Amino acid sequence: MRQPLPNKVWNGQVIYLRILSLCICLFLGNTAQVLAFQNESAKLITGQIIDDQGLNVPGVNILVKGSTTATVSDIDGKYRISASSSDTLVFSFIGYTTQEVAVGSQSILDITLSEDLKQLDEVIVVGYGTQKKSHMTGAVSKLQNENFGDIPILQADQLLQGKIAGVQIQNTTSEAGVSPSIRIRGNASIGASNEPLVVVDGYPTSDGLSFINPNDIESIEVLKDAASAAIYGSRGANGVIIVTTKSGVVDKPAFNFQMYAGVKNPYKVHDMLTSTEYVEMLWEEEALGAPGPTAHEQAAWSLGDNADWQQEGLQQGMISSYQLGVSGGKKDITYLISGGYNDEKGMLVNNDFQRFNLRMKMDAKLNNVVKVGVNINPSFTKNVLPASNFTDYFRTPSFMPVRHTEETSAITGIPVGDWAHGRHFNNLTYNYTLPDGTAVSEVARPWNTSNNNPLFISDNDERTKKLYRLMGSTYIQINLGKNLFFKASQGAYITSTTQEEYRNEGTNRAGDANRGLYENRLRIDLLSENILNYSKTLGDHQFSALAGFTAQKVTNDYSSIVGTNFPTDYIPTLNGATVISLEDTYTLKDESLLLSYLGRVTYSYKNKYLFSASARADGSSVFGPENRWGWFPSVSAGWVLTEEDFLNNSSFLDMLKLRGSYGVTGNNDIENYASVNRLYPNNYSFGAGTGSLTAGLAQSGATLANKAITWERTFSYNFGVDLAFLSNRFSLTAEVYKSVTDQLLLKQPTLAFTGYSEFWNNIGKIQNNGFELELRLNNITQKNFTWQTSINFATVKNELIQFSGEDRLLSYGERNEVYLAQVGQPYIQFYGYKTIGVWNTQEEIDANASNSLDRPGGLRLMDVNEDGVIDDEDRTVLGNPFPDFTWGITNNFNIGNFDLSFLIQGVQGVDVFNGDGHYNESKRMNKAYVENRWLSPEHPGDGMTPYSTNGIGWQFTDYMIEDGSYVSVRDIILGYTLPKSLTDKIKLTSLRVYGSAQNALYFTSKNYRGINPEARSTSGAYESPLVSGYQRGAFPVPRAFVFGVNVAF
């Protein structure tokens, strides 16, 4: 049993379970009332909806007029809804004329919808409300749940990949359970967060999309410009992603079961030399005039080839998902309950991810005045984190076995079957034979390595992260009459994160003692929103207004305890530790508050002249009293030319709309208390031994106060055109935008005499501009064959236009990489030396500008300033980690009961620093490198590949700056839906089976020598937005094959 910990460590789980239990009881009680509620006068109405050509029309909205009772038609155009004889049903769908049909005595109503070529009334969810797409004046893209449940993914972020122009999803690692990064229109900050705000059913959160079950999503809207995002004020600078989850519909209970399972394998791994190949390469080099193998290298050769460490560290990954949901309702009450389990076994050994999720949602119209609802979403995730990264495997020499063999045991004295470590093979006597037959006995240190065994570390270093989440909200909406509605929402988002680690003795190179860690973080986010909505139509004039007040409070509690010197590894809990490390034990707490006032007005005249304006005032506790409030206005306008007389009767154009917008958004996503001096308490021990209970407490400066610090503000301009033609067969949206972020937030170093190391400051200005294009094509629409294509394309270019009175800033990674932020250039650029091939002879070095580290076969640096000396003044820009453009193409085919879709996605013109290649070539272990390397003046190779990247190669040069462009056949899905005649016989509503392939094909640039151009280092020094584009320990691209089934009944 674990040692009892302070009560506050467990508070998160206690609060979580109490609130979850209360919410479930309330929900089940209300659901029981819903199911018990019967309207005896209602009857079941069924039917099928087709168009003028006899094609089934799925997704038609069917509404009982004057109520909230509604449903939608299924894939076959069929529907079911409860209504009384006196009711009227309203049938509506984008592009078709709305029809109203009285129920009367009928129980079967088959409807034929006629096309309305001028209609474009898709509903778009925007901040705190909805708008017709035809009235939108901002840059908003929407993904509708037409087949979200048919896409076998664990992370909802992947739904956006390659689908929306200007939205880049980057899979920085392929480890199980790790979410990709999301960027909307590039990076707008150099010191604060660049992640977009995510709003789930009206609840704003900074946790991204990873916790949302993709099967629960009804639609995703992406707000890209300030006119649409300014209503979220201080958190809208990086764009806003609005997620609307599914709701129940008035009908008898409908069940849906979805499952899939599949396997994952690496698309590509490094092509490395074995020990034998390595030493044979050295003998070949000696024959050509290069130095022969050293004693250490020959010693390694004598051990033979014992392991392919990349394969030892990889396993066949597996993914599976099981989801079950039920929805329904009676009259004015609807409900939905869904639950699921996801499991991902990573491709790296000892890396797993599991997620359990539940969603309960209910809406009830109590009378003609009051409507209420509740939405509860608890979830639990467990992530087994890898103790070794992929670098640890491919850099381990193949002469070292996983466990000692008879041969290695005879040399090292370590028993057969014990874990092998690099240190076991050092400073021993090795016997080997030279090519001329001479027997040699020599003390050696093979490859000068003390590497630990990465499989031993993975097996003996346990790291588990558990996350309990509860997002819950309730609302009451009151009809105040005359088109005026008031909605009050209250919500809570509680997360409790625990991380447990236990390292057995010897799991690092030094062989340190065992160590245990327990960390806990409790986060309580409370939200209150109060919104008034008003709308009015007077003849040709349509007007709406919104006003509201919101308050959000976030409290964080952190606790950490570390224990060491466990007598046995069989009791890894903290009660087994003989020492509690005071230096590593702490508790912390912080709070933040955001108060907001907001408003918006929209106006339309004859559906052709459109206007919208919004404003939000945010007060944030992150900043000092004098700069606490920020003001974020926006204005936009549109002109629908196809409503004008000169285009109204056009047989070609169905929609032509021009629009423009201007707005201001903000960013306050930095640590709390930046405006006050902060001291950090440091525990220390003195007396006998480390971790002694004789303790002291010292205060050190954490962050120096800056009372003048204020909001980052982004000023955005957007101009767009929406176009549809040929009976809405083709539609196009194009955007041109420019955004300028002022008062950039950045943590900067202070002078040493202050006692503090850093402080937050507003230091400059950055600009982004770009172009976006989205094209949707209904290529073929026949009764048994349809083909639709979606194409998106986006460019973004950033520029640092001001930086705190200076013209540049240099930032450094962990391995001598240099990053330049210079006014007039992209705000991150690789900065170092250009190379012009390799030196061939010493005479060539002596006759030209050179460096003391230069040698034949080494990289030749360019004398950029032509002063005859190679020094720091010759460093220059080598590239930048931002793509020139991104794109995606999606094709959807329906042929009878078969469906086929595939997504091709690409990123072009992006530079990366391939740290893995740099390491492999410095150790001369990469096969491709061996083929091209310099060997001697007579054998110069390709003239560009050095003998080794050691020496001058450790300077930051363009030799390892590579083109990270790629094209991926990201998803291929082939499905078959059983005919209705068969599913009726087996009492099912529908049944679909499918197979899919992810990353079936993956193409990279010829210039790229790595295995995954999307991978990025994001921890340590690389967490900063100023240090980017570095690859180290890149994990292979996963290729997955999945089979699934969806059943409705």
From TrEMBL:
Q: Name one GO cellular component term.
A: cell outer membrane
Family assignment from sequence similarity = Belongs to the TonB-dependent receptor family.
Name of the featured protein: TonB-linked SusC/RagA family outer membrane protein
Which ranges carry the TonB-dependent receptor plug domain? 133-240
Domain of life assignment: Bacteria
Transport: is it a keyword of this entry? yes
Which source organism does the UniProt entry give? Algoriphagus chordae
UniProt KW keywords:
Cell outer membrane, Membrane, Transmembrane, Transmembrane beta strand, Transport
Where is the protein situated, by its record's location annotation?
Cell outer membrane
Q: What PROSITE patterns does the entry give?
A: TONB_DEPENDENT_REC_3
Q: How does it sit in the membrane?
A: Multi-pass membrane protein
